[in-house]
Amino acid sequence: MQVKIRDERTGKVVVHERLAEAFPRWQPQERWLFISPHDDDVLIGGGILLQRALEEGVDVHVLVTTDGAQGYCDLSLRDSIVEVRREETALAYRAIGVHQVHLLDFPDGSLHLFKGRRRAQDGDPGMIEGYTGLQNALTFFYRKLLPSRVFLMSLNDYHPDHKVVHEEAIISLFHAHNPIWAELGPPTGGFPRVYELAAYGDFVALPSIRVEGTKELKERKLRALDLFVSQKEIIASLVSILRERPAVEYVREYGFKLYDPAVYEAFFS
Predict the structure, then answer these.
(1) Which InterPro entries did the record assign (predicted)?
(2) Which of 253, 161, 266 is nearest to 210 (CA)?
(3) Domain residue ranges of the chain, discontinuous segments joined by +
């Protein structure tokens, strides 16, 4: 199983056998946080990567931001779909060996109403330390987990929830690094490397990493997706494509960094 890294500047491709050789600045204890707008997203885009990371001893966490309330295909499930999807999520990730799944339960399809951070009122979702909002929750989990790498769904994905989570996740990296909102824990003291996976739409630019899996890893991923029984009609078109393709996934490094004027000096020399 190979991992291929493409240098975006030169186009040169380097082949490795292990994730630890391919992902830069590998730490003795890697902790990866996959932020999934909906319960099935990172499994669609990174189910093989998740399994390979576990095989190499990575401490893997999945953070699901929405409650799945809008994902019903049958009226009989409308009032129970949140609990149904909660159970499906536990089963699906457990099937590939992921046991650390965190649920924020923000309202599915309405994430734009929970951008930022504000004082929580009775009944607000995602309440942490008396506040609600995606930036509050994401800052808290960055500081709590201190991930070495963060994986998001591509900003180019079609679903609006995916775009909102991507934007909030990026600004929350800045918040988590700084000493604001002390009740959410001490600052992280640094930034993780940030990557994107794709599920609905293509990447916004060429991916930089190609991860191969075995037939067994691919089949385990597909069996896990089949456990989202309530979502079969919704994700059928996505899964049908995966069934026909090789056991390969693609990742794009986002390249998160703070503005530095020196970057542009050479253009004006």
Answers:
(1) GlcNAc_PI_deacetylase-related, LmbE-like_dom_sf
(2) 253
(3) 28-266
